[in-house]
Amino acid sequence: MSENRTTSGPRPAPSEGGGTTVVALDGEIDMLSVDALAQRLDALTAGPRPDLVLDLRPATFIDCSGLGVLCRARNRTLARRGRLRLVAESKSFARLLRLSGLGGVFEVHRKLP
Q1: DSSP annotation string for 25-67
Q2: pLDDT band for position 9 (50/70/90)?
Q3: What CATH number did the domain enclosing 41 receive?
Q4: Is pTM, for the whole model, over 0.70?
Q5: What whole-number distance in Å separates Cα of residue 85 and Cα of residue 68?
């Protein structure tokens, strides 16, 4: 598995280690950035059995539109019998998931699996 960090938006890392793709999301994931992110995640979840890890540790902000894109990626992944994991250390992100009713919906890790 490899990791890719960027400040110009999410970019997929080359697939390695069994086909897992790791995408580090920098900056704000909000209504201004979700269209481009949704297109990228749609491409990454288009094939059969996608294995995707979204590293949210570099993200500084996630609003409800960002959560919507994460839910869409999760639904597309599950529909194709794949796996989506989130990496987040932030207590505020865990709280956001809990308050939005998404606390048990995502597979969340504190470190890259």
Answers
A1: --EEESTTTHHHHHHHHHHHTSSSS-EEEEE-TTEEEE-HHHH
A2: low
A3: 3.30.750.24
A4: yes
A5: 15
